[in-house]
C-alpha cells in the first residue's frame, strides 16, 4: 500500500512542479501578447483534451514525466519570420533551407521527381540563411517561371515559392516580439519555480511548521541492520548513549559516527512510559569519503511552527541556504556525483518522505521546486538558461540567429543533456546496486 501512495506522491509532486513552472512561461507569454497553442501536462501521446480557452488547448498526455507549453513562433524554423515555415527541398542532393510561408497544399499535386535539378538548385541559391528570398534570387526565379524550358509542374513549384513574398509575419508569434519580452517569457518559468518553492516554505511555517534540526527520535529503521536486529523500533527516543545524556539528534548522530566498529554501544531508549536498555554494535560506512559508524536508522527532524512574519524570515533563510548549496555543488565534482539524482533517486526520496508524513512531502516539493528553477537556468541550449544564452548572443550581435545556427546549438544542447542523463541514471542505478 505504501508503494501505491508513493507513486501517487511522485506523480502528484512532479505534476504540481511542472504546472507551476510551465504556468510561468504561459502567463508571461500571454502578458506579452504571444499566442500559446498548447499547454500539456506530461509528454507523449495525447490522452485527452481538457478543452480550448483563448486559443490554447489544454491536454493530458501519456508519459508522466514533465510537461510543456507551446508558444507560437518558438520553433527554430520560425525564428526568421514568425509565420509557418516548411523545408523546401532545394536540390537532388537533399540540401535544405528554410523558406518562409511555403504553401505545401499548393505542392501536393507536384511530384518531386518531376522537378529538375536546375530548378531545385535555383531555389536553393535564392534562399538566404534567414529563410528569405534574396532580390537576385527573386529575379532569377521569375525568369525561370516564364522560360519555355520550364514544365507546367516546375512552373507551379516556382509560383508557390514566389508566393512566399506575400506572407507577412504574425505579430502574436514569439519571434516577432522584442528581445526583452522573449527573455521575460523564458525566464518566467524558472522564476516561478523558485518563487513557488520559497512561498511553500513560508506557508509551511504557519501550518505544518519547519524542521529546525535533527531529533533524537528514530524515524526510519533499515531492515537487517544492527538497530533493527537489536530490537529498536520506529518512534523510539534515544535518551542516552554509553551513559551520556542525549539532548538532540545532532549530538546523537555525532556520537554514533565517531563510534568504533565491533564495539557495542549501550543505548537507553524511551518507549512510551518505559526506559529500555539496548546493546547495539555499529558497522562502518563511508560518508563523503570518510569512514563513520552507523547503526542503521535515520533520526527524524524537529519541527517548529512560526508566526506569519517569522515564517517569511525562515523562508528567506531556507531559500538562500538551499540555492547557495545547489550552486556550490557545481564547483565540487565529488559532492555533485554523490548528490545528483534522476527520476529513480527522486522517487526513492519521495517514497521515504511519504513514510515520514505529508509534511515531509511538502518539504521535498519545495526543495525540488528550487532545484528545478536553478537547474533550468544552466546555460545549455534546450534548457531555459540556454534560450537566455542565445537571446544574449542575439542582443550582442544585434541580429537573430538563423534556423541553422539554432539547430546547431540545440543539437549541442541535446548531446550535453544526453550525457548528463546517462550520468544521472548511472548514479541512480549505482545507489540501488549498493543497497
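-> sequence recovered:
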Amino acid at each position: 500500500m505504501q508503494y501505491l501512495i508513493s507513486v501517487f506522491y511522485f506523480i502528484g509532486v512532479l505534476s504540481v512542479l511542472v504546472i507551476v513552472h510551465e504556468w510561468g512561461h504561459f502567463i508571461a507569454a500571454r502578458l506579452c501578447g504571444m499566442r500559446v497553442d498548447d499547454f500539456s501536462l506530461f509528454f507523449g501521446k495525447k490522452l485527452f483534451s481538457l478543452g480550448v480557452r483563448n486559443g490554447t488547448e489544454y491536454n493530458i498526455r501519456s508519459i508522466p514525466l514533465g510537461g510543456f507549453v507551446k508558444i507560437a513562433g518558438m520553433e527554430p524554423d520560425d525564428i526568421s519570420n514568425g509565420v509557418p515555415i516548411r523545408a523546401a527541398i532545394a536540390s537532388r542532393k537533399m540540401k535544405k533551407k528554410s523558406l518562409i510561408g511555403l504553401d505545401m497544399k499548393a505542392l501536393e499535386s507536384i511530384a518531386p521527381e518531376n522537378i529538375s535539378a536546375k530548378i531545385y538548385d535555383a531555389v536553393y541559391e535564392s534562399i538566404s540563411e534567414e529563410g528569405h528570398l534574396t532580390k537576385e534570387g527573386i529575379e532569377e526565379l521569375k525568369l525561370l517561371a516564364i522560360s519555355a524550358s520550364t514544365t507546367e509542374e516546375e512552373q507551379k513549384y516556382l509560383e508557390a515559392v514566389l508566393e512566399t513574398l506575400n506572407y507577412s509575419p504574425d505579430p502574436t508569434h514569439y519571434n516577432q516580439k522584442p528581445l526583452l519580452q522573449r527573455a521575460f517569457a523564458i525566464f518566467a518559468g524558472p522564476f516561478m519555480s523558485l518563487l513557488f518553492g520559497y512561498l511553500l516554505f513560508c506557508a509551511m511555517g504557519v501550518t505544518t511548521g519547519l524542521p529546525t534540526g535533527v531529533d533524537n527520535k528514530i524515524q526510519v529503521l533499515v531492515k537487517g541492520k544492527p538497530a533493527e536486529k537489536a530490537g529498536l523500533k520506529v518512534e523510539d527516543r534515544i535518551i542516552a548513549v554509553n551513559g551520556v545524556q542525549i539532548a538532540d539528534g545532532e549530538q546523537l548522530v555525532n556520537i554514533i559516527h565517531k563510534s568504533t566498529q565491533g564495539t557495542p554501544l549501550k543505548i537507553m531508549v524511551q518507549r512510551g512510559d518505559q526506559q529500555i536498555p539496548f546493546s547495539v554494535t555499529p558497522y562502518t560506512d563511508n560518508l563523503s569519503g570518510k569512514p563513520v559508524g552507523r547503526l542503521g536508522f535515520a533520526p527524524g527532524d524537529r519541527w517548529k511552527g512560526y508566526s506569519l512574519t517569522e515564517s517569511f524570515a525562515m523562508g528567506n533563510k531556507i531559500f538562500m541556504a538551499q540555492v547557495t548549496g545547489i550552486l556550490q555543488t557545481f564547483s565540487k565534482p565529488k559532492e555533485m556525483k554523490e548528490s545528483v539524482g534522476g527520476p529513480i533517486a527522486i522517487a526513492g526520496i519521495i517514497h521515504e518522505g511519504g513514510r515520514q508524513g505529508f509534511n515531509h512531502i511538502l518539504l521535498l516539493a519545495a526543495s525540488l521546486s528550487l532545484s528545478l528553477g536553478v537547474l533550468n537556468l544552466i546555460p545549455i541550449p534546450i534548457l531555459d538558461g540556454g534560450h537566455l544564452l542565445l537571446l544574449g548572443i542575439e542582443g550582442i550581435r544585434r541580429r537573430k540567429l538563423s534556423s541553422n545556427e539554432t539547430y546547431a546549438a540545440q543539437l549541442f544542447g541535446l548531446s550535453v543533456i544526453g550525457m548528463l542523463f546517462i550520468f544521472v541514471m548511472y548514479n541512480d542505478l549505482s545507489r540501488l546496486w549498493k543497497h
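The two ends are 22 Å apart (CA to CA).
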